[in-house]
Amino acid sequence: MYSQVNDDYCDCPDGSDEPGTSACPNGKFHCANKGHTPLDIPSSRVNDKICDCCDGSDEYSGVIECPNICDELGKSAREEKQRQAEIARKGFANRKVLAAEGQKLREEKIAGVAPLKDEREKLLPKKEELLQKKNTAVERETTLKDKHREAWMAVSAEKKKEKANKMFKEIDINGDGKITLDELKKIEYLDSDHDGSVSDDEAKIFLSVDEIDADHFLNNTYERLKTEKVAYEDFKSDQAREQAEKDAQEKHEEDHDDLVADEDKADTEVYPDYTTTPSPPSEEENDDVMPPYDEETQKAINEAEAARKEYDEIDIKISSLDSQIREAESFIEQDFGADHAWATLKGKCFELTEKQYTYKYCPFDKTVQKDKNGYGETGLG
């Protein structure tokens, strides 16, 4: 019966008999909301003293008055909808531009691959030719440098032998062909603590056997004594230089005291130069330095260097072409959308700073977070 509709008693299981009351927990109330958006609300919200419908129809009991604000809300909603539509229109227009640019860029990449490959193919025979030229030049360079080094080592070994024999005879005071501890103690430059005499301990450092013969001296002792001698000579040279500087400074101070009373003389006084000249390398040090290469070897070195440079230039050029080809082919194969709209974003990055961090987004590459204080980046995927 119609009298049972909206009688605040739920008769139908689906709640359809009470669309205007809150009697049925599963009932629905329809808000017409003319001028805005229609709305279905649970029947439990009808006459609950809360305005749910913009037209106020859900509170028809009159307990509270709900104003009809549907026209006002509808106007705002329509304006927002128009705003969103305008954004979509502009976005679509921008996408069309991006798609056109992306398609053009893709076509340029496709068109550019073939010339790059052609140029690479043309350079390969020249690269092989220059490689052979370089290998030949380097082989000749190596041969002549080895020859020069071996010749120097032979001469150096002979000089070493002569100087070792000379030093051996100088130390072998009694001429018995052997060097003893007592003979080593007479070598001034073995006084490592500079106390004026060579102790047993200082001498024994160089005496690995009871007595040193000529062969043992050449192979085991000579280089060590030579090093010790050079160090001692450097020490004595430093001492002499320091003393000379000290004497010169004292003389300068004396002269300065004499000049204080005579200002005119002081104006024309030329002070001596107290700088010292470093001692020239000793003969022993020169023996360890290989002499300059002869003209033929130096010419081979220069030619090898020129051949290396020539080969490296074409090798770098081909490597650059390979890199450009890989980049272009990768670009062509990458998915930038059906219309290629996102192709122009490849290689670009965008940054956003929020409080302490700067976020950097590089499409098709990486996203990182950077601390504004200058710390390293953290990858975000």
UniProtKB/TrEMBL annotation:
SUPFAM superfamilies: EF-hand. One of its GO terms (biological process) is N-glycan processing. Gene3D superfamilies: EF-hand (1.10.238.10), Low-density Lipoprotein Receptor (4.10.400.10). The keyword Cell membrane does not apply. Residues 236-263 have a biased composition (Basic and acidic residues). Keywords: Calcium, Disulfide bond. Residues 159-194 form the EF-hand domain. GO terms for molecular function: calcium ion binding. CDD domains: LDLa. The keyword DNA-binding does not apply. Coiled coil: none annotated. It comes from the Eukaryota. Residues 236-298 are annotated as: Disordered. One of its GO terms (cellular component) is glucosidase II complex. PANTHER family: GLUCOSIDASE 2 SUBUNIT BETA, N-LINKED OLIGOSACCHARIDE PROCESSING. This is EF hand. It comes from Ancylostoma ceylanicum.
